[in-house]
Amino acid sequence: MAKYFHVADSTALAITAAERMLTLIRANPGRIAICLTGGSSPKQLYQLLATDAYARRIPWDRTHWFIGDERFVPPSDSRNNMATARGIFLDRLAPKDHIHPIPTDAADPDEAARRYERELQAFYGSGDFDPARPLFDFVLMGVGPDGHTASLFPGYPALDETRRWVVGVPEAHVEPFVPRVTLTLPALASCREMLFEVAGKEKHAILTRLSENEGLPANRARSIGETVLLVDQAAMGE
Ligand code: 6PG
User: Could you say which of 101, 131, 177, 217 would form a disulfide bridge with 82 (CB–CB 3.0 to 4.6 Å)?
Assistant: First the structure.
């Protein structure tokens, strides 16, 4: 079951997300893995992590940064998800070899997916998930207007993938209409906490559908640990 937490606005939402992420970081004295997300929702959180007050609370030397999905465009393209996170905070603060982008210089999205899957499995040290040892400490997610999350769109075969950790998605269901590469539900699930950021009045309609338990991708993405939806008042329709 996912837990819903209500916050006042997008600023409170970014602060709550940052504090929850730091709680997970504090709980792990070893190597930490964080899976970031794309879209506009996480930008305020990334800006917060870039501030001295937050940056000094992150053990950069033992924290690794991944991305849950990518638009199949080069890092120089402003629509590239990892490039957005790098530009806001990672390039200045994280060791370069701790930043793990999806390789969009691959021949096609499927080849990029296979390469990223190999990278994740090498990092994890196995091709099989052990529930006692989640791949990620923290997975950040957003929700699209059609209920997609990561690049797992309603009715697409990627949603039912049980074996692969990462797959190519030839066509997006919403803008930007570029091919995607996405982690699958089992890979995203292998975490201590999965946190959805849901802010703004434009999310009200989809939030209503999610809270009615419609079988949308964002309702099927669940952590083996804790799943949290952080929702602001505008998304609540207040
Ligand atoms: C992407 C995303 C996607 C996003 C949602 C919400 O690459 O587009 O990872 O799943 O999180 O579409 O997007 P917004 O935050 O822009 O509303």
Answer: 101
Q: Is 80 in the pocket of ligand 1 (CB under 6 A)?
A: no
Sketch the domain layout of the chain as residue ranges. 3-236
DSSP string, 131-168: TTB-SEEEEEE---TTS-BTTB-TT-GGGG-SS-SEEE
Instruction: Show Cβ contacts of residue 55 under 8 Å, excluding neighbours closer than 6 positions.
Output: 49, 89, 93
Tokens 């090498």 map to which residue? 122
pLDDT at 77: 97
What are the structure tokens assigned to 73, written together?
């465009």
Going by CATH, does the domain composed of 3-236 fall within 3.10.180.10?
Answer: no
Atom 12 (ligand 1) nearest CA = 144
10, 36, 40, 41: residue to mutate for ligand 1 pocket, most atoms within 8 A of CB: 41
Query: Is the overall model pTM greater than 0.85, yes or no?
Result: yes
